[in-house]
Amino acid sequence: MKRLDLAMFVALLPILVCSHLLQSSTARALAQPAYASRQLLWLVLGAVLLLLFAFSDYRLLLRLAPLFYVAALLALAAMLFLAPLRAGTRSWLVLGPYTVQPSEFARIAAILAAAALGARHQKELLAGRTALQLTAVVAAPALLVALQPDLGVALTFVPILLAVLWLGGLPWRTWVVLALSVLLLAAAAWLWYLKPYQRERILTFLEPDRAPAGAGYQQRQSRIAVGSGGLTGRGLRSGTQSQLRFLPAQDTDFIFAVWAEETGFVGSVFLVLCYATVALRLFAIALAARDRGGTLLAATVAVVFTTQTLVNMAMVVGLAPTTGITLPLLSRGGSSLLATCISLGLAQSVWRLRFANL
Q1: Residues sharing a CB contact under 8 Å with residue 233, sequence separation 6 or more, in sequence order
Q2: pTM surpassing 0.85?
Q3: Total Cβ atoms within 10 A of residue 345
Q4: 358 within a domain of the structure (yes/no)
Q5: Which of 350, 330, 342 has the alpha carbon at shortest distance from 45?
Q6: Residues 6 or more apart from 216 whose CB is under 8 A from it?
Q7: How confident is the model at residue 193 (pLDDT cuts 50, 70, 90)?
Q8: Which of 149, 289, 291, 330 is the most buried (most CB within 10 A)?
Q9: What's the pLDDT tens digit per position in 56-95?
Q10: In sequence order, what E strands does 33-166 have?
């Protein structure tokens, strides 16, 4: 344990405790006591996986990255035909009372594959061919996830690509081309991919009073919950928006609004500081890595974790449109929690082996 980054564990522990407290609160509001006990099981299993991957050798995992990547692509492709339709998507495999979301673990495979590919190229600037290879490696699983369709998880692959391209040294001219390509893809998605309710969410974000009882209802209730928390909150399990079930998706996408209502500004700042500490430690691990593969791996994990956290919190307070991106470690869902813990464990492996012989 002395070789692990204990500062990250000190910040992670309150987040995991808050996760259990929040899931107990929302389980009571939703009259689903099994949700709390199930999330506690995932928290314990996630902690075990974090330690297991922390004591693994990330260099071996990077060498095995192509196998993990191919397996992830096959699993995602199979989901399009084998997975049942749930909530309009084919994102989950049903295993008795449990569900598994392979796309969460496919993101880890994409991180490993991108880091392994980027580590092979030691030049100061990425060649165009290498940049295209990295783009294809990240785009393939993201496209399969988008076809399920699950736009929220598909968007979480974007930070992977941006991180490896930035750290790899992409020329500024290529960034311009990439930015124009993103604009074209966004326009195409608006015209042919996004469903009417998804377009309405974006329009409602730009015009908050557009549909207060429709597409804008979630964010409206979320902002009410955050504001009603005041300085110190209404108390655990005492939030009106959550306990009276005015707040939709309170155990998943908008769980931070429940915390803000129950613990107020003080509790919210505390939780934000814990997340910020984890993010800063991840970036510090990337800087301390002794090889290019470790740097790319830890930095990509850091960017994905930070981006997902910021987007979710911004969505809760109305600074970003509703996207279906969950809050790492806090939102209910075993696949998301386990995948996040595995990612953090990989970063810990980079830190543990920072003085090891290459």
Answers
A1: 239, 260, 261, 262, 263, 264, 266, 267
A2: yes
A3: 23
A4: no
A5: 342
A6: 204, 208, 209, 210
A7: low
A8: 330
A9: 999 999 999 999 999 999 999 999 988 888 877 888 888 7
A10: 93-95, 98-100
**CA angle at residue 247 from 339 to 35, to 5 degrees?**
45
Query: Is 357 part of a structural domain of the chain?
Result: no
- 296-320: per-residue pLDDT in tens? 999 999 999 999 999 999 988 888 7
Asked if residues 20 and 43 have their Cβ atoms less than 8 Å apart, the reply is: yes
Domain hosting 186: range is: 6-352
Tally of domains in the chain: 1
In a domain, 1, yes or no: no
Radius of gyration of the chain from its Cα atoms, rounded to whole angstroms: 20
Question: CA separation (Å) from 202 to 37, 138, 194, 250, 252?
Answer: 35, 25, 10, 20, 20
Residue type, 55: F
Question: In the structure encoding, which two tokens stand for residue 269, read together?
Answer: 């700042």
> Nearest CA to 36 among 48, 44, 27, 45?
27
